[in-house]
Structures are given as C-alpha cells and as structure tokens.
C-alpha cells in the first residue's frame, strides 16, 4: 500500500502564527524615529514597553552607545574574517573582562543560537547521550538535532520532571559514556527556574550526568558581577557543567558567551566549534559596547542596577497579589505570565492592552501549549513604578472583559494551567441559548433524528453505532474498551443546530507518525505494550471516518452552539482524565478552522480520504469511461487480467472457522501497515460482524485450489453508503496476483450491484484508489493537549527516523 501523507509540524505552526498575525497581536512593527526603552510606538499608539528582555536597560546606556560609535569610527562596521585566523583589536579586552566575570575559561560566540550549534556537536561525543527538558529553548533543541546524524540518542523529558530524568539516566547508564541534560536557567515564557540544586545532587548520585544550561534570561540581573542565575545558585562552576550566558538581552550589547570550566574540553571547542571556525566574528561596535557593559558588571554599579530591578519586580508581584489575575509562576524573575487559556482570550486581551497603551507579548503555541496561551510581561529598569501601577490597573480591568468577550472563565483558566484561582470574576450567565442532549449510548438518542442528521455518513447510522458500542465494551484489554458520548444541541424552538459523538479510548501516540517512527516505537512496545500511548477523547472513533459533525451553518447561533459543545467536551475530558482531545475529519480550509484555533485547538494534517460517488454505470465499459485514459490502461493491464484468477464470493454470516481465517488475513495487513498505527482490533469485532445484517465479506479465493487470499470487510449503510472498512490479505500471493487491486475492483462492482450511491474507501493508498476513480479529499484534525511534550517528542522522532 502507498504511504500516508503526514503532517509537517512547521505547517501547523505556520497556521497558528498566521492566525495570531491576522488578529493583530504578532509581527508588529515599532514606529518613530527613536527608542528610549520606556516607551514604544505601535500602530500609532505610544505605549509603555513591557516586552523587552533588556531587563537592566543597558541597551540605552549612553556609555555603551558612545563605545559602539567610537568603535565604528576607528575599526569600521565589521571585521570580515574568521576569528580562527585573527580577531579584531577589541576582542582580547572583551574576553579578559568576561573571563573575570565568570572566573572561568570563556568563549565569545556570534549569538546563542550559533553558539549552541558550535558547542553541542563538539562537546557531545559519539558515545554520549542527550536528554532535553522539553521547554529548553528552541536554539538548544535545534542544535541537538545535529547529533542524531551521528547516531547519538537524543530524547525529551517533561519540564523539570526529575523522576523522569532519573529513570532515563538509569536506562542509559550502561549504554553510554556521558549523559548530558540540557535545560534553561530561567525559562523565557513563564519565568520559572531550573531546579539547579536538585540537578547537582542528581549528578553527584550519577557521575555520568553532565549539565548544560542556557542562562541567557538569567544573565546580568542576577549573580555576582551579573554572572547570572546559575552562578548565583552555584557560586562556583563544577567541571561537569557547560553554561551559556549572553552579551545581548540584559547585557545590552550583542553576542553570547560559553563558560567551560573543563580546560581540555574548552580547548577542543575553541579549536573546532563549527560556527566559531567558519562564521564571521562580532562587529567592532558590538564588542566595544560589550566592553563598556562588562566594565559596569565588574563594578559595584551592577548591584545598584540589580536592586533597582528587584524593587520593580517586587512591586509588580505585590500589586498582582491584590488581584485575581492568574499569575502562572510566582517567583523573583523579571518574566511574568498571565494565563488566558484560550487563544481567543489571549488575542482579545493583548489587543485590549495594546490599545490601552501598554506593549506586552502574546505567549502561544508552540512556545507554550495551545491551551496555555497567555500574556508574557517583562519588567525592566526602564519601567517607572507609576507605569507598573497603571499596567496592573489596565490588566485587571481588561482581563474580565476579555474573558467575557470570549465566553471564558477564570475557573477554566485555572484548570488549563492546573493552578488554584481565588474566585470566578465573571458572573455566571443566568440562562442558556440552547438545550443540550447528552447520552452515553445511541440507544438513548432519537433514532430518526440521529439518522437524519448524521446517519447518512459512513457507518454513523444508529445500527452502525449500536454495533460499535457492542464491539468496544466489556473486552479484556483496555485498548479495546471505549466510552461513547453523544451530543445534540438544539435552539429554544427545538431546531437541531449540531450533533456529534465522541469516544474516549487509548491511542498510540504515533498513530499518524511516519511508519519509520512507528516501527521504532513498536520495538519498545515489545517490552511495554502501552509505551507512548495516551487516553484520547476524539470526535468519532478509530473505526469510522468522514463527517462526524453535523452543524447548521445557516443558523445564527451555530458558532455559539459549537463553542458550547467545546466547553462540554472540555468538562468531559476533565472528568474522564484524557490527555488529548481531537476534533477530526474536517476538509482542508474548513471555515471552522479559525474558531477551533481560537478555542485552543491546533490544526494537524490527516491522511487523505478517498470517496467514489459516481456509480451511475451498468457495465464494465461504462465504468471505464468514468476513468482517465491512464487509469483505463492500468485497469486493462493490472486489474482485468487477474479477475479470472479468482473465485469471488459475497459472504454473509460466515462460520466461525472462516471468520478465524479472515481474522488472520486482517492481522497480516495490520502487521505490515504502520502508516496508520492503531491497536489491532480484537477477534470479537469480526465475530460480531458475522452475525450482523449490515456486514458482508467480499472473499477472493485463488484458483485452482480455492485458497482464500483476500477479504474485504464491508458495512452497508441503508442510506446508500458502502463502507469497505477493513481488509485482509495473504502476502504470499498479494503481489503476484494483484490481490489488493482486485479487492478494490470487486468492492466497486459490489456497491454498484447493490445500487449504492457512494463508497467510502477510507484512508491510505490514495494513489491506488485514485486509479479506480476515487476522489481524494484532503483532511485535517484539530487537537488540544495538556502540554506540548507528546507533539515535540514525536516531531523529534520524525526528524530522526524519516
């Protein structure tokens, strides 16, 4: 079978960022003829600047400006030569001063991103392993990808999860020399810290453990001589740590700095560290500004600046404590994060604050989980106390309005971030615009109404859902037990606005990953069958495809009804304890996409779906006329000549021994197809098919021995939909006798003989199905997860094995 087309993570990010840009909260441009640090003009509005990462305000210090200007006059705008050959005249002075700040050997790099690319592949040897905190900065994760080319194992753990880290260390300890754990000192979105002392204790327990810290957000505002958060905690740097600081951001200039107490390793990195060797060095103006900043850091003035910033941080914390604003991480860093939960609330809130004259940053996927959208606020020495007070007043005033405008509540935000909130600052609505019907069995839903709304799709009629409920309950293995949840939302006049159903069950995390990734994970599942699995709440179920949501888009309250459904399913997911929610099988570019994204769901590509809806022919020649000329040639060469090789039978109510044979053929296909990696269905499903009037089996027996070599499992929806749901084949004969293609052709003939209007051919093998006249429908799903860990883990594996 042809491979399934898979989602590209970058496409997902592109859609999310594009949506936020459209909302007017990203890709903005500063205006005006100058900047002073305290204010910034955006969209014609002069705003107080609460988005800078120059926490001490040194980028506006006149001494740094004068030094940069003088350096340009003396040495030019750049020194275009690799530093390996020769450094420009200012470099030695800067290196000496930065070395004095850290009291350790240091290397200056062009920036932290290039610095990580230079250092990580050099420091990490072929017999080492790397573990990444999944919230470590992108620049570290990106540099670590280069290691995979050399076969070095690189894996993720959940944020600051030391139990998970220790377990991973134990699993790696007998296989590798060094184990590198890479983390941020201060995390750039929530402003929380790495558990440095606990990590040191862990490295003492496991001497193989080495630590790699990106501390660019901890630089200057913390530590002796502004050496950063990590140095402030440790005081002295042990040999098993590599530390990155920055000369930009708070330092006020440009560039980054590696601190390496291991002198032998230091020399190796200096001699050959990728961009250190082959990239241009820092411009004279940047080096001169950094020297001026280093002089400040090496003086007592740095502590006055740190104290001034801490005063502002403390004041902001004090004011926030008097409000109900959900501060996600309460600490002493200059980075603050006010959670909004839903992206729609985040967009609304940021736009209100921008219009009020305060520049703040939106935090959204992939920097944070999609349902952890919020507002990142940074405090700097540029901010006056009255500016901070005015900001808090604006935040408190507009937060309530943003929640109300987006049908959100503080309680929902608290649940999204797993934090306690003081109270719901929005009054509960006294009434509802809808009546919501909820049931946990199709037996409790009006048959005629359901069949009218959704029964015309796939096997979603009442009989089909009764079959599924019977098959996926009371089974021995947990992956074969699903719960069913039906929703119909009506207006006050009883008119149905939407209808759908969800199932909750265990999914393999790699279900839509490339088959190479699934094959690698399946090796782990030999020891642990439930490795990398998650309980998922999904629209529809894994047994069905196609349209799972009926919605009357002409109804004036269709958007409100959809939001009501998402709220209900959010509550359901919490009750069931699921780790991910999925809205699936929507056509590409669905008009619902923007609403889903604003409500906290991110788009991912699904495999293409295949449909034949032209069955208006009565014989083979008329069928061929519906195909392209190339497909007709294919049929005459690869399909028609093999038809006589088989006895084709339509089997109803097969005996148990025949079902056993069918089941073995199904498992053959399942074991070969990793493109859509689901759990193998239990034997009971096929036994239930045999006794159900809506199921039939297209059986191919190879002449002359009449050996069963293929079977198609087909559901007959009385509304005129033929659904070949599963397939089974004997691969000994599959290629020689074109078994798969023959099954497709016989399926099409059977649907025509029954006078059905449409065939739902399902996912995968779209290239083959297109040859038989199938229309290809590009599909997408929308997912919401508690954090980004699973998505990032799969993306990392996709890059490694694809």
Automatic annotation (TrEMBL):
Transmembrane annotation, as ranges: none
InterPro entries from the UniProt entry: Acyl_CoA_acyltransferase (IPR016181), Aminotransferase_I/II_large (IPR004839), AON_synthase_class-II (IPR050087), BioF2-like_GNAT_dom (IPR038740), PyrdxlP-dep_Trfase (IPR015424), PyrdxlP-dep_Trfase_major (IPR015421), PyrdxlP-dep_Trfase_small (IPR015422)
Domain Aminotransferase class I/classII large, chain residue ranges per copy: 52-395
Keyword presence, Transferase: yes
One of the record's GO molecular function terms: transaminase activity
Claim: Transport is one of the keywords in the record: no
UniProt entry keywords in alphabetical sequence: Aminotransferase, Transferase
Domain BioF2-like acetyltransferase: 630-769
The name this protein goes by in its record: Aminotransferase class I/II-fold pyridoxal phosphate-dependent enzyme
Lineage of the organism: Bacteria, Pseudomonadati, Bacteroidota, Flavobacteriia, Flavobacteriales
């Amino acid at each position: 079978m042809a491979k399934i087309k898979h989602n590209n993570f970058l496409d997902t990010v592109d859609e999310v960022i594009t949506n936020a840009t459209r909302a007017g909260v990203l890709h903005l441009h500063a205006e005006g003829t100058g900047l002073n640090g305290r204010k910034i003009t955006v969209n014609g509005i002069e705003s107080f600047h609460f988005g800078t990462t120059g926490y001490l305000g040194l980028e506006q210090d006149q001494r740094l400006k004068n030094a940069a200007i003088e350096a340009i006059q003396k040495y030019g705008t750049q020194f275009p030569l690799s530093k390996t050959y020769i450094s420009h005249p200012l470099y030695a002075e800067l290196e000496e001063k930065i070395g004095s700040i850290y009291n350790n050997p240091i290397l200056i790099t062009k920036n932290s991103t290039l610095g990580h690319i230079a250092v990580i592949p050099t420091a990490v040897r072929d017999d080492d392993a790397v573990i990444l905190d999944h919230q470590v900065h992108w620049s570290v994760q990106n540099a670590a990808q280069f290691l995979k080319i050399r076969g070095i194992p690189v894996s993720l753990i959940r944020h600051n999860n030391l139990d998970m880290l220790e377990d991973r260390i134990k699993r790696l300890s007998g296989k590798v020399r060094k184990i590198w754990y890479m983390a941020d000192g201060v995390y750039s979105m929530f402003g929380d810290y790495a558990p440095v002392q606990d990590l040191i204790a862990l490295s003492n327990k496991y001497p193989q453990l080495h630590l790699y810290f990106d501390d660019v957000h901890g630089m200057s505002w913390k530590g002796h001589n502004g050496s950063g958060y990590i140095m402030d905690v440790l005081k002295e740097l042990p040999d098993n740590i590599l530390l990155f600081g920055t000369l930009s951001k708070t330092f006020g200039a440009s560039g980054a700095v590696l601190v390496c107490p291991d002198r032998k390793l230091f020399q190796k990195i200096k001699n050959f560290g990728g961009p250190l060797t082959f990239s241009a060095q820092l411009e004279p103006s940047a080096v001169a500004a950094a020297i001026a900043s280093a002089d400040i850091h090496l003086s007592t003035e740095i502590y006055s600046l740190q104290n001034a910033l801490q005063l502002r941080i403390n004041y902001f914390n004090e004011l926030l404590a008097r409000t109900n604003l959900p501060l996600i991480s309460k600490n002493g860093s200059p980075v603050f994060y006010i959670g909004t939960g839903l992206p729609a609330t985040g967009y609304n809130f940021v736009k209100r604050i921008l219009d009020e004259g305060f520049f703040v940053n939106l935090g959204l996927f992939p920097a944070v989980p999609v349902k952890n959208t919020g507002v990142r606020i940074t405090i700097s020495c540029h901010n006056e106390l009255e500016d901070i007070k005015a900001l808090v007043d604006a935040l408190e005033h507009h937060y309530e309005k943003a929640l109300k405008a987006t049908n959100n509540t503080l309680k929902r935000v608290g649940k999204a971030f797993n934090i306690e909130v003081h109270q719901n600052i929005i009054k509960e609505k006294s009434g509802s615009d809808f009546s919501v019907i909820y049931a946990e069995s199709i037996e409790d839903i009006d048959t005629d109404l359901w069949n009218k709304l959704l029964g015309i799709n796939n096997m979603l009629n009442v009989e089909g859902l009764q079959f599924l409920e019977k098959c996926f309950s009371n089974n021995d293995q947990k992956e074969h037990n699903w719960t069913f949840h039906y929703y119909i939302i009506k207006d006050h006049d009883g008119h149905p606005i939407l209808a759908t159903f969800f199932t909750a069950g265990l999914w393999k995390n790699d279900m839509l990953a490339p088959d190479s990734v699934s094959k690698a994970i399946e090796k782990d599942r030999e020891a642990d069958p439930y490795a990398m699995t998650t309980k998922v709440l999904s629209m529809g179920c894994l047994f069905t495809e196609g349209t799972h949501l009926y919605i009357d888009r002409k109804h004036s309250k269709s958007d409100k009804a959809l939001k009501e459904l998402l709220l209900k399913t959010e509550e359901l997911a919490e009750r069931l304890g699921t780790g991910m929610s999925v809205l699936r099988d929507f056509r590409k570019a669905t008009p619902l996409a923007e609403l889903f994204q604003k409500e906290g769901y991110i788009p991912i590509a699904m495999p293409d779906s295949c449909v034949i809806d032209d069955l208006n022919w009565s014989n083979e020649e008329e069928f061929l006329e519906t195909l392209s000329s190339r497909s007709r040639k294919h049929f005459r060469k690869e399909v028609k000549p093999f038809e006589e090789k088989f006895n084709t039978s339509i089997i109803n109510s097969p005996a148990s021994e025949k079902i056993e044979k069918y089941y073995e053929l199904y498992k053959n296909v399942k074991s070969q197809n990793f493109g859509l990696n689901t759990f193998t269905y239990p034997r009971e499903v096929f036994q239930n098919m045999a006794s159900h009037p809506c199921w039939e089996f297209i059986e191919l027996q190879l002449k002359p021995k009449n050996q069963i070599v293929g079977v198609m499992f087909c559901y007959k929806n009385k509304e005129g939909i033929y659904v070949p749901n599963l397939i089974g084949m004997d691969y000994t004969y599959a290629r020689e006798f074109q078994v798969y293609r023959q099954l497709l052709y016989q399926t099409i003939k059977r649907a025509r003989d029954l006078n059905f209007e449409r065939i739902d051919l399902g996912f995968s093998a779209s290239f083959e199905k297109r040859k038989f006249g199938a229309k290809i429908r590009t599909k997408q799903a929308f997912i919401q997860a508690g954090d980004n860990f699973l998505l990032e883990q799969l993306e990392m594996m996709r890059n490694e094995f694809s």
